[in-house]
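hiii so my PI (J.) wants the whole complex modelled not just the main chain, which honestly fair. so below is everything: two entries, each one labled with what it is. i double checked the lines twice but i was tired so who knows lol
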Amino acid sequence: MIKLTIDGKEIELEEQVTVLEAARRAGIKIPTLCYFEGLKPFGGCRLCLVEVEKLPRLQTACTLMAADGMVVKTETEKIKAARRAILEFLLINHPLDCPVCDKAGECELQDLVARYGPDAGRFTEGKRHHPESFDDPIIVRNMERCVLCTRCIRMCEDLQGAYAITVTGRGSHSFVEPFSGGRYNCEYCGNCLTVCPVGAIMSRLHRHSYRPWFVEKEVETVCGYCGVGCSMVMQMREGKIIRTIPRMGLGLNNGLLCVRGRFGYDYLQSEQRLRSPLIRRDGELHEVSWSEALDYVASRLKEIKEKHGPQAIGAIGSGRCTNEDNYMLQRLMRFTIGTNNIDSSARLYYAPALLMLEGILGQGITANLIPGIKNADGVVVLGGDPTQINPILGLQIRAASRDGAKVITLGRAKGLERFAHIMLPGAPSNVDVVLGMIIQELREGVELKGENKWLQEQLSKVKVTEPIEGIPLDETIGALREMKNAVLVLGPEVLQSDNSDRTLLLVAALVYLLDARVFLLSERPNYQGAMDMGVLPDMLPGGRPLEMFKQKAEEALGREVPADRGLNLFEMIDAASEGRLKALYVMGENPVFNMPDKDRITEALKKLEFLVVQDIFLTETALMADVVLPARAWSERTGTYTNLERRIQFIRSGTDSADGMEDWRILEEISARLGEEKRFAILDEVWEEVVHVSPLHSGLGYDDIKDGKAIWPYKGEPLRGVEETYEIQGLDNIRPIKSGQVLQLDRPLYHSGSISRHSKALRSIEDEAFIVISTKKAEGLGLADGDIVKLITDRGSLQARIKIDSTVDEDNIYISNTFTEANFGSLSGYEAGRLGSLSLDKNPVKLEKV
Amino acid sequence: MERFLLKNIDNPESHRLAFYEAEGGYGSLKKALSLKPEEIIGEVKNSGLRGRGGAGFPTGMKWDFASRDPKFPKYLICNADEGEPGTFKDRPILEKNPHLLIEGMIISAYALKAEKGYIYLRGEYPYAKVVLEEAIKEAYEKGYLGDNILGSGFKFDLSVHQGAGAYICGEETALIESIEGKRGQPRIKPPFPVNVGAWGMPTVVNNVETLANIPLIIKIGSEEYKKIGNPECPGPKLYCVSGCVESPGVYELPMGTTLREIIYEHCGGIRGGGELKAVIPGGISTPVLTPDKLDTMMDFVSLPKVGSMLGSGAVMVFDQSVCLVRVCWRAMKFFEHESCGKCTPCREGVSWMRTVLERIESGFGRKGDIELLQDVASNIAGKTFCPLGDGAAGVVLSFIRNFPEEFDYHIEHKKCMVEA
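here's the output for the full assembly
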């Protein structure tokens, strides 16, 4: 127990903290500039000087640890004079250009000078000059305004871990610059913008467009880009988003955002947004009224159902739409149309992987808290770079590493290069060999708990018949054995091979042996929610298998649930091309572009009698549709997302849309036109039904969700234990598959599917698809970063610049699927793998130097 | 007095190992290796040796703190970043007597149980780098460095790390940052380097001259050592004298020799028989003294009594021909250039003081400038992150306090008193 006195207040502390923190806890605010909660103390600005009895000099409260018996004063005349002096010093070189500075109004220096500062400065010579830098498309640097608090640098180094910026020069000619010179070569998280107290580092996206006091509305919401679900605040003026910012203490991201969340919001205001419902007449899409479009959709669906039966109709839900939207889509399909033909792009990897993991290890196995990763003492990462796929989760791994956790990566993980202790090779289709080698060693001498007999049986069968050479196995096993509080992060890359079922079994075995918390990376904000809402051909809302819970669901709703398992995404495509599926309803998804084998998907959809697409852009899929319905975008409606840790979070509307309609409401309108009673006037009523039908969500109201209490397990009960067994081939004969050079899907940090191509900001950072190859491959071909190469598959070829990544496998060539000009989908094919996910193994590719 | 630190430096072979050994060199190391590390620390504590870099912290106490820390490895760093203007006392040791330093470092490392040492060498001492590296090579070859030194089982590796020219890197925590490959800026203290130093490990940073004293303490014993110079802070001291004296240079004298004796007996008095006007006793960061303080003993306890400090023992002598406003302005140019930029008062305030001094010196001084300078200096003093800013403020305050008439004259007559 530490007892000290600050400004006459006696304060008792349980733990050692700084005087600044002790004062804060006692409600005494000491002014600061270089201090920022969560960053290491710096002690440079000298504003937090306080008087401490028995110490001759003034002390900085941000660096001085509170000690027993200390007597501190924070507001004496001497201190006020010192603060005034410090502020006078700061204004020597800080330009008084507040009238043209975007920061004015939320500038910490301005506020401090107003409170403590001198009325006028006595410095009469000229201020230092340094040209404002517009070298970067997103971030403008005005180093004349910089007060050298180094908050940006500490943020970049200590929290973001990007190490992109530093102080150059010395003394009053010190400036913060990126190592890359003019333009930043960094992760563009923009977290330096958050911490800059003055107008030295600013976003160009809203430059000179508003004053902080012009913000008309602030709305707390959750990012719509990936499955982490970062909280953010939208600031609005005149119906438009001015910017999205994180806030300390808000959400699991606690003040941090990634590039997509911070800068990617401008797609909402894109000129290319859909403005009106469209109906195809004589081969062309024509604008029509909502009622005409809705009537038409209903009549066509009715007609097809009558003619071909409900099994001729299918639907694709969306990981970008809310729980409520997805619930309504499956409701339309199951209860109104009468088919279980419903699935989403979660099928590509997330859904089959999650279902198998849950089948082996139990429901909710991936429901672990993201901020808890930093407390781990060991992290195993495989299946792609988490700092690109789910950046804020990636930061937690970096934080864990900084706190001493051992980080082991298998395969691609460039963003963890500085943080990983052991980087093992792991080509997506051969990672099972490395895992097998690890398991063979790790299982020795371990007394298994016997909780999971089936898994233990499988574990004992594991045999690698042809090990991969050059793996530091002893070191890896040593590190794994020391882990007492392990985390395993599993990404999509290793889940899209033909043998992914075996890989996943080995992952489950590793999780079991390490007693690790497992995280399944999610590329979309609501893959988990779509699954929970029953957007699966064989599962009802609440994660209940169809055959087991058909009756219960029928009792709960008083409606009949179709008995037969429906078609999944791949089967729907096949059924369409074979003419069995006549109508497809696509909500918030763009399969023509987002799935590999563009030709196959296009051909299949062409055969449909009726295609409805509900979206915010006229996507490649929408262009083929018979009816296109403009939906509302992320910022234009409310609802809930369930993130990868299964936290249900509320998204709120900030902007309005005169043209679009919420997805769930469109579906309600169509249901009504198909003879359903109108039930849902407001969103809350949809959720009420979800809670009623899904035992998982039982008793969970919006108030709980808004309060941040919707963390797994919810009030409802998980319903299934560990029961399932799987037939896994070749566990006793694991060896590398020599498939030659194959094309893989790149998941770049700066983009997200096909939506981010409508963001000018993100495109200004990266406006092309790169061919990502290994260092070895580049050396073999004599290529350097940025060289243009020709990529050839049996489907065609393209040219693009290369990016060298030292962590990728030599035989795997990556390209993203965002840009129309050069993308993965048009050059690749797919099959359904044994796991039930996409298998991308059979995409041989060649590279030619141009 | 018999010279120890500068022994034989006039001999062109003084830097060679063979010569050093022939003169009894590395004898103290052999003696030290027969003692327990704690005994050596005890001897150094008892000797009353105080750090020669400027702060005068008791060396034995510093060692004691570091050796009590249970963390390993520990590091020993020799601060050879001799950057204080007017200071060139370490240079003859580095260039002429490198084995004395190396011997001192090996003994110190043995006492501290440190297995790795660095000599952080001033970037502008390229010749010393050549000499030191050659000497280190010789020492390795003879088994004074490396594994199992002289069969004792003790291991110590030593290398030279060349600085890049920043004055602030003479401050021990900035020096450590620099060795770690970071920007040279001081760290928050506490924790002190003795507990959390290089790469977070216990680290002792000692000045060249301090470490060069160690073999002497071991050789003659702490009791004999205490008899040299002022008993309150004993030992031999290198005084480097520059400016208006007949024979500027480095003088090894007992600690506590008076300024008068140094200037008039050893340096041959004021150049050309001129009259003394001012003297800076310990490098540019120490407050200037007037001629009436000439009988002050030059040591860590006597100089503070007259409002200055021993600092690095760099005596700068100014006669009546020197304009002290110009000296003050020139000093401020130095501090402005060398301010690392970390803390506000030093970064902005020193540069402000320079501009005001510049306008006074160039004949554009204004009424009130002296008060402004004093106010700015007081606003810096005691509020900076490290002593650099304090030093700059101290210079301005002491020059104005001791020679107000020169500043007044400049402002009033727009020209220098000396020229007039």
